[in-house]
Amino acid sequence: MKRYIKNMNMLTKEENDRLGKFKVCVVGCGGLGGYVIEMLARLGIGYLTVVDADKFDETNLNRQILSNTDTLGKSKSITAQERIKLVNPLVEVEPINKRVTKNNCEDIIKGHDVVVDAVDNIDTKIILQDTCSNIDIPLVHGAIGGWYGQVTTIFPEDKTLDILYVSRDKKGIEKELGNPSFTPGLVASIQVSEVLKVLIKRGKPLKRRVLFIDTFEQEYEVIDV
């Protein structure tokens, strides 16, 4: 199929064909999540569950790829579904217009091959990590704030976020530093590459390692945790 022909020098045909059978859950359809959803769909992931209870507002326009003047006031998850119908109608998208909580997290993420953390509050990140661990699903974590970002891939036996967020500060770096247009796209791209490595079981995911990104100094460092 011509749609995926540019995948073929980096993926085998068998790997490419398998992508259509995988299910990925993206929690958060804003700055990180919008880019993640777009790239996963273009890559050819067959089933996406996209989760977000929020609606777009004017403050999202500087960085959230799914936001524009026509989507203001509209559901982020439904907008993501509508966008992917245009981008790749071969991809099935299930929008879930809910906030993830301890009570509903397992029901939302069960049955997926990978979960992507694209939320901006630490409590929800920890809920995702703990629930993924309990039901044996890898989690690709991303966080952004100003010039900075981080990515790690958390397998069920790991508790990487317990190390990263020892203080469990409720606010998170994005609330303090804000976000420009470029940080979400960069971090989301790395998250998608991690999702792909986990799915095709090739390459070296950031297991028990965290990539720290400083775009102000253009410094990229991987630290073992």
From TrEMBL:
Residue span(s) of domain THIF-type NAD/FAD binding fold: 8-223
GO BP annotation list: cyclic threonylcarbamoyladenosine biosynthetic process
Single annotated GO MF: ubiquitin-like modifier activating enzyme activity
Superkingdom of source: Bacteria
Alphabetized InterPro entries for the sequence: ThiF/MoeB/HesA (IPR045886), ThiF_NAD_FAD-bd (IPR000594), Ubiquitin-activating_enz (IPR035985)
SUPFAM superfamilies: Activating enzymes of the ubiquitin-like proteins (SSF69572)
PANTHER family with a match to the protein in the record: TRNA THREONYLCARBAMOYLADENOSINE DEHYDRATASE
Name by which UniProt lists this protein: Molybdopterin biosynthesis protein MoeB
Species name: Thermohalobacter berrensis
